[in-house]
């Protein structure tokens, strides 16, 4: 916070003068650059002062706090030891010179319940140590809903992955590593490699409390929902400080790899259309549930592909229930991925299903163009895909300029035009003007080549064991 008039910025009086507000992002290698805005604001009457506890920052996601490594250790509060938040004013993050940013929306309470249907999961903010969760952290068993999932022992999963050996390693996510394992198709007992079915096993980093919260959300949501376009969660393990999840294995990996990885055979236009339909079908299902489920983290890396390029949504750690009753939105800490998050969510922390619709519009552009949502490799200037593509979406002649050159012109012009029109609607700056995902799905399905009857829409699992 840079005061533009006299007065100490360390005092409430100083803060109530003209200030410069800015919002930063935190990339995978630390802070990167000014992200959303920088403006002078007369704060008199808008600021309230209170102590703010810093949420755990996650690399690669939009977080409510930012730290500059060059400033050394900080306490997680603005200079002078006071947090500063907006009493009103729809602006994203409010940053202090302590190099931490407090989100503009009201801070979440220390306990954030996730309620899905008749289940309840407490994600109380128990502290974590460098070696795992403290003894004060409650047993996970009483926090989990009664879901249709297999409870694995740690020894089971060690056997399935050959003790998490390096040759079983598949990759690393935000809060843990993923390994390839083998289990019996019927009993789910661990087997030796080559026997039974392949599964993907995510092992949570023990020091990640934010990962623990997302682990709970993943179990809660995927433990209840069964849909052909949601990745199947088979089971979980919770022993001492070990938290693991067992998923169906998606052999073709993520959509991100097939769109952006060098040396990968480009997908045909028909395959891209089918993937868009699958993603729309998954989101439409989530939005049709009562209460609605907001996915909140749609991006190419979270869309996984099976051997036939059928797409499924994965990673429900950031999912939230939508507003209920007469509420119009959910107020929450701003998290997500740069380039995909809806602008009104970034600015206010107000979350609705239309936030997912915006992210879907970005994915449509990625499928059309083969370009990433944020491009950092063009002349050293960062540019979002939305900003680059929007001027070309309105006309058929200009639309050609955004099409993936690897398609070599082999795409249905009418289908591409439909993609462009839908993208414009989904990316509307006014969330109320964005379409419902059910309507987007209906439009996309008209592009699909005739085949077998439509697949089932999915189901909500009752809270009972198999």
From TrEMBL:
ATP binds at residue 203. Its EC number is 2.7.11.1. It catalyses: L-seryl-[protein] + ATP = O-phospho-L-seryl-[protein] + ADP + H(+); L-threonyl-[protein] + ATP = O-phospho-L-threonyl-[protein] + ADP + H(+). It holds the Pfam family PK_Tyr_Ser-Thr. SUPFAM superfamilies: Protein kinase-like (PK-like). Keywords: ATP-binding, Kinase, Nucleotide-binding, Serine/threonine-protein kinase, Transferase. InterPro entries: Kinase-like_dom_sf (IPR011009), Plant_Ser_Thr_Prot_Kinase (IPR050823), Prot_kinase_dom (IPR000719), Protein_kinase_ATP_BS (IPR017441), Ser-Thr/Tyr_kinase_cat_dom (IPR001245), Ser/Thr_kinase_AS (IPR008271). Residues 164-447 form the Protein kinase domain. GO terms for molecular function: ATP binding; protein serine/threonine kinase activity. PANTHER family: OS01G0588500 PROTEIN-RELATED. Belongs to the protein kinase superfamily. This is non-specific serine/threonine protein kinase. It comes from Anthurium amnicola. The lineage of its organism: Eukaryota, Viridiplantae, Streptophyta, Embryophyta, Tracheophyta.
């Amino acid at each position: 916070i840079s005061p533009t008039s006299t007065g100490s910025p360390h005092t409430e009086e100083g803060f109530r003068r003209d200030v410069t507000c800015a919002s930063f992002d935190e990339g995978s290698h630390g802070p990167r650059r000014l992200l959303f805005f920088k403006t002078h604001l007369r704060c008199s009457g808008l600021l309230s002062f209170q102590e703010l506890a810093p949420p755990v920052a996650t690399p690669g996601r939009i977080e409510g706090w930012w730290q500059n490594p060059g400033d050394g250790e900080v306490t997680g509060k603005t200079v002078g030891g006071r947090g500063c938040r907006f009493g009103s004013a729809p602006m994203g993050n409010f940053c202090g010179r302590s190099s931490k940013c407090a989100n503009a929306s009201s801070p979440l309470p220390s306990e954030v319940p996730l309620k899905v249907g008749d289940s309840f999961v407490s994600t109380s903010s128990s502290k974590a140590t460098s070696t795992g969760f403290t003894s004060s952290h409650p047993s996970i068993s009483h926090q989990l809903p009664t879901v249709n999932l297999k409870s694995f022992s740690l020894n089971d999963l060690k056997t399935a992955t050959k003790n998490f050996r390096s040759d079983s390693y598949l990759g690393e996510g935000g809060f843990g590593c993923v390994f390839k394992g083998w289990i019996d198709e019927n009993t789910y007992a661990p087997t030796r490699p080559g026997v039974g079915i392949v599964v993907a096993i995510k092992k949570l980093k023990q020091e990640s409390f934010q990962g623990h919260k997302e682990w709970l959300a993943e179990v809660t949501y995927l433990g209840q929902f069964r849909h052909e376009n949601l990745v199947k969660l088979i089971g979980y393990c919770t022993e001492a400080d070990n938290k693991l999840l067992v998923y169906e294995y998606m052999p073709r990996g993520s959509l991100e790899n097939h769109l952006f990885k060098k040396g990968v055979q480009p997908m045909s236009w028909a395959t891209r259309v089918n993937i868009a339909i699958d993603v729309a079908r998954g989101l439409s299902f989530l939005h049709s549930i009562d209460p609605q489920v907001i996915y909140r983290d749609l991006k190419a890396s979270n869309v996984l592909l099976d051997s036939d390029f059928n797409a499924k949504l994965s990673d429900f750690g950031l999912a939230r229930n939508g507003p209920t009753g007469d509420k119009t939105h959910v107020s929450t800490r701003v998290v997500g991925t740069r380039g995909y998050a809806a602008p009104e969510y970034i600015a206010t922390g107000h979350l609705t299903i239309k936030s997912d619709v915006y992210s879907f519009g970005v994915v449509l552009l990625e499928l059309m163009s083969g370009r990433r949502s944020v491009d950092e490799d063009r002349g050293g200037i960062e540019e979002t895909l939305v900003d680059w593509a929007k001027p070309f979406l309105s006309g058929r002649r200009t639309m050609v300029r955004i099409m993936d050159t690897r398609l070599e012109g082999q795409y249905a012009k009418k289908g591409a035009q439909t993609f462009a029109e839908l993208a414009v609607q989904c990316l509307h700056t006014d969330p109320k003007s964005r379409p419902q995902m059910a309507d987007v799905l209906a439009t996309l399905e008209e592009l699909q080549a005739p085949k077998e009857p439509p697949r089932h829409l999915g189901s909500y699992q009752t809270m009972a064991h198999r």
